[in-house]
Amino acid sequence: MGSMTAALDALDAAIELVGAADIEDVPAPQRFAVLERLETAMRRQVAISHSQLTRLERYEGCPPISIVVADVLRISRGAAKRRVRDAEQLVPRQTLTGAELPALLPATGRAWNAGLLDGEHVRVIQRFFRDLPDHVGPVEVEKAERTLAEHAQVMRPDQLEKIADRLGAHLNPDGTFSDEDRARKRGFQWCGGQRADGMSVGKLIADPTLRGMLDAWLAKFAAPEPEDTRSHAQRQHDALAVLVRRQLGDPKLGKHNGLPVTMIVTTTLQDLASGAGHGVTAGGTLLPISDLLRMATPTYNYLAVFDGVTGQSLWLGRSKRLASADQRIMLLGKYRGCTAPGCTVNGYNSQVHHATKDWKHGGTTDIDDLTLACKCDNLLVENDGWTTRQLADGQTQWDPPPDVPLRGGTNNYHHPERFLPKDDEKD
Questions:
Q1: Which helix (H) or strand (E) element contains residue 287?
Q2: Which segments carry the region annotation Disordered (predicted)?
Q3: What is the CA 160 to chain-centroid distance, rounded?
Q4: pTM score, two decimals?
Q5: Which residues contact 99 (CB under 8 A, 6 or more apart)?
């Protein structure tokens, strides 16, 4: 600990010296060389930081390392996962017996540790191997990695990307991909959150089977109608909405976390009365009240209404009573997602959690003591010594066990309105 602390103290002092220095004291032609040295130094620090991630150990009471790193460094969980993944690929590994193995990307790792590569260079090389088909042999893979690492040291990432594309075409000239190659690339995800206008952008990489099925569906339900003013893209959007709408609420779908597979929306009496504002789905999607009213709350959806001032539950619209499921629906309206500090898991993917005493330890299913927690955070309470309790304002307090380097607290992520100043706090 002493040597590391001393090294960090020296680094802090050196950064202070560099920050106090004036680049104008350097002759103009040499100033770019100064920036280059600064860039190399920063890259080396990043590489060193990444290498330390492989030395971190998970101990009792801690969630996965990436989550701890995200909270301690105050970076996004996505960024933390990328750092852990980079460390796993760029830093030499050890076997269970302690023997050292080369990094998965050894040449790239050496250049990275020397401060010669930026994170964008690494992304290009990682993407190249992710898209490379499995039939390319290990010898060619090793040569390709070494070649890309060499070019990355003298090229910008956008230039390197062109080299990677040419190299990929050379190694797979016939464009041959196996079923496993295609299956590995398939996926759908939303590209960020909702935009300011409430719309969302998604990215779909469809395998041939899904593409064929969608083509057949869209041929019927996205076909233009007489006097149809919609564009081709708009018709396809509406056809997909028909496809999903026909499935939601079907008993054949079973249940998800104890509830029918359907849309659950919560809103306030005040917003309903004014016809403005929005409802919130259990997935965290904001649904304009105008859209909600047009839906007329079909029987396959659930609508929970709260008082916007007191938070008191007022009404639950549904086709039939579901006993304990009704409690869960109101919990979705109250909490909207996992209540653990900083957790972004939405309500659909959260579980009911006993805040004071778990059911298996004698806790009762009292709505005032129920809250929401994702599977990962629920296990922190069950297995790793975390505790939860309900506060007077109805929020759930999470407290870590001693010696865990995380702060406890409540979670406002699913309630962005809490970040706004109250009327009596405004200037």
A1: strand 286-288
A2: 391-427
A3: 28
A4: 0.69
A5: none
Q: Distance between CA atoms of 367 and 311, rounded to whole angstroms?
A: 14
Range of the domain at 141: 23-178
365 Cβ partners below 8 Å, 6+ apart? 324, 327, 354, 359
Pairing of strands 278-281, 286-288: antiparallel
What's the gap between Cα 175 and its chain centre? 32
Does residue 401 lie within any of the structural domains?
A: yes
Q: What is the rounded distance in angstroms from the CA atom of residue 36 to the CA atom of residue 39? A: 5
**How far, in Å, are 57, 77, 96, 191, 207 from residue 188 at the CA level?**
33, 19, 37, 9, 11
Residue 281 lies in a domain: yes
b vs e for 110-148, b when ≥16 Cβ sit within 10 Å of the residue's Cβ? Answer: bbbbebbbbeebbebbbebbeebbeeeeeeeeeebbeeb
Q: What count of other Cβ atoms lies within 10 Å of the Cβ of residue 420?
A: 9
In whole angstroms, what is the distance from residue 166 CA to residue 157 CA? 14
Share of the chain above pLDDT 70, in %: 88
> What does the H/E/C string look like for 220-267?
HHCCCCCCCCCCHHHHHHHHHHHHHHCCCCCHHHCEECCEECCCEEEE
- Beta-carbon count within 10 A of 106 CB: 17
3-state DSSP helix/strand/coil % of the chain, to nearest 5: 50, 15, 35
| Residue in 54, 115, 118 with CA at minimum distance from that of residue 89 | 54
37: in domain: yes
Q: Which residues contact 103 (CB under 8 A, 6 or more apart)?
A: 89, 90, 91, 92, 93, 109
Whole-angstrom Cα distance, residue 74 to residue 83? 13
Integer Cα distance of 60 and 403 in angstroms: 10
User: Would the pLDDT of 374 be above 60?
Assistant: yes
Q: Are residues 122 and 217 in the same domain?
A: no
- Domain identity same for 235 and 274: no
Cα separation of 191 and 259, whole Å?
A: 27
Q: What whole-number distance in Å separates Cα of residue 396 and Cα of residue 340?
A: 8
- Beta-carbon-side half-sphere exposure of residue 63 (alpha carbons within 13 Å): 24
| Domain shared by 324 and 341, yes or no | no
According to the model, what pLDDT value does residue 310 have?
66
